[in-house]
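User: Fold this; tokens only.

Assistant: Input:
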Amino acid sequence: MKLYASQLNPPPPLHFPKNPKPTKSHHFTPPQLPPKPPKFKLAPKNTTVPSHLLLEAPPKWVLLGGASLSFGLLLLLFGPQQAWAFGPDGPLLEEFWDNMRRYALYTLTVSTGALYTVFQPIVELLKNPITAILILLIVVGSGFLVSQVLSAMVGISDFSYKYGY
């Protein structure tokens, strides 16, 4: 037996009073709405659930946060390791290589986060054909402008500035 959306329990209809009694105050108080039904209901076995009631994929920020957290926990599992230094094995050298590792991870996470923040709105704009063409024109025009400026700076182009005196 298939279960259709019309067979699920619909929310109760709103009941408004037909003739509200006037009050002494001049403020209108709206009638109380019944509580909203839950979004997801359990259906009996052997039923087909409509597609609009299925769970959606988690947002991108949840996936990115989970990946970052799991990567951080993976780094914590390795714990403090001895650095392979070419000099004496003093504590300052160990601390130096530990700081170098942390700075490299910091640089990697900050740069990937900045790139993600910059390119996410552009990817959203690429879904519309008109804005995709505009973005393509902006990227090509910017590349052409940068190439012209660099060729003039290096002296590859035939451009020469003639002074007026």
